[in-house]
Amino acid sequence: MYDEPKVGTTERLAKTEAVRSRVEQDIEFLSARIAALKTLPRPNQVVIDTYQTMLDSRRSVLKWFQHGRTAEPDSQHDRYTADQ
Q1: CB atoms near residue 43 (< 10 Å)
Q2: Over the stretch 63-72, which tens digit does the pLDDT of each residue have?
Q3: Fewer beta carbons under 10 A from the terminal one: N or C of the chain?
Q4: pTM of the model
Q5: What's the structural domain count of the chain?
């Protein structure tokens, strides 16, 4: 009855870190795409606005993940929040 495996905190934390890492990758990609699009002779403002909305959303998700974190933020984390 008590021998059933339980999902531990370590497993949940690993999944959370994987999602956080993916969100940070999305932020990096979207930031680079926006910057590249703005350098075009005739940038498509609709696409830029769409990417900006997605970027803002990813940043909000990242802030949500970081809320209540007790560990010291890593340098990658600092790089993403500094852009805000």
Answers
A1: 13
A2: 998 885 645 4
A3: N
A4: 0.67
A5: 1
